[in-house]
Specification:
The complex is a heterodimer. By secondary structure, chain A is of the alpha+beta class. Chain A is 31% helix and 28% strand. A 5-stranded antiparallel sheet of chain A has the order 1-2-3-5-4, with helices on one face. In chain B, strands 1, 2, 3, 4, 5 and 6 form a 6-stranded mixed sheet that branches. Chain B is globular, with a radius of gyration of 12 Å. Chain B has 5 helices and 6 strands; from the N terminus they run ββαββααβαβα. The longest helix of chain B has 13 residues, at 25-37. In chain B, 38% of the residues lie in helices and 30% in strands. Chain B is α/β, with parallel strands linked by helices. Chain B has helices at 25-37, 55-59, 62-70, 82-90, 103-109; strands at 2-8, 11-20, 42-46, 50-53, 74-78, 98-100. In chain B, α1 (25-37) runs parallel beside α3. The chains are: A alpha+beta, B alpha/beta. The A-B interface holds A 11, 14-15, 32-33, 36, 39-40, 43-44, 47, 94-99, 101, 103, 106-107, 109-110, 113-114, 139-140 and B 21-23, 52, 54-56, 58-59, 62, 65-66, 82-83, 85-87, 89-93, 96.
Chain lengths: 141, 112
């Protein structure tokens, strides 16, 4: 099963997209941990696209496919912004005190840790980011 | 996100209801900083009714925490649910913020 969602490149369109995908995931049997991970991935990855993806002021569509199979959900995000691999940056040094922490990197670090699989490819002039996780992950320890 | 406030003696409790997401993080940070500048030096941030926190929401705690450190005040977290606590853990932040299961425990056992 694959369902298609899309949003224009405007910040106010992000929350409604996250709510639509949350509703579908819950109906498909996702538990709280899976829903949290999906929302965090959508918010952190799409916030990056909205902030850094485009030079022009025109409208762009960000596409999200939700696939569920074999007890696992997969989100595929496609945008036509600058080529950018969110998973290419080094993980932040989480041993630093707060005042020495750099501004960026924490969101993607969360995505990498909460999702089971994170992939990037540049395909036909578009960024394609794929993340997946089981629908019923065990509670964090 | 909705922020509600109450006092427990000289401790200010800020409760975050709903989502502390990337969009609402600035609002929370400014709200907390406003109280700190007005003299609140003992602050509990209550996540008991918080359903979701994103990276910028967590980052919104950094400047208030540093500001309180500068004036010898204290910022204590309460009521983190397991998903939110896990984010603090992944970010290497759980040891940097004193945290308690409930506001009552934070009031009674916080290192004020």
């Amino acid at each position: 099963m694959v369902e298609h969602f899309e949003m224009p490149n405007r910040f106010e369109a992000l929350s409604p997209l996250m709510e639509s995908i949350t509703t579908r995931l819950e109906a498909l049997g996702a538990n709280a941990g899976a829903v949290y991970a999906a929302n965090l991935a959508l918010e952190e990855l799409i916030t990056n696209i909205l902030k850094y993806g485009y030079d022009d002021a025109g409208e762009h569509l960000i596409h999200v496919d939700l696939a569920v199979a074999e007890g696992r959900f997969t989100l595929t995000l496609v945008d036509d912004g600058h080529a950018f691999d969110p998973f290419a940056q080094a993980a932040p040094d989480t041993s630093l005190p707060i005042h020495e922490r750099p501004i960026g990197g924490l969101g993607i670090h969360f995505v990498r840790n909460l999702l089971d699989e994170c992939r990037y490819e540049r395909r036909e002039g578009k960024n394609v980011v794929t993340v997946s996780k089981v629908l019923q992950p065990p509670d964090p320890q | 996100m909705q922020i509600t406030e109450r006092r427990e003696g000289n401790i200010l409790v800020l409760s975050i209801e709903g989502k502390l997401d990337n969009a609402s993080s600035d609002q929370f940070r400014e709200h907390a900083l406003g109280h700190i500048r007005a003299g609140a030096h003992a602050l509990i941030v209550d996540f008991g009714k918080t359903t979701y926190v994103a990276s910028m929401g967590i980052r919104a705690l950094f400047i208030p925490a540093q500001e309180l450190e500068r004036v010898k005040g204290r910022l204590v977290l309460a009521g983190l649910n397991k998903e939110i606590e896990n984010l603090f853990l992944i970010g290497g932040l759980l040891d940097l913020f004193e945290h308690h299961p409930t506001v009552e425990a934070a009031v009674a056992n916080g290192k004020w």
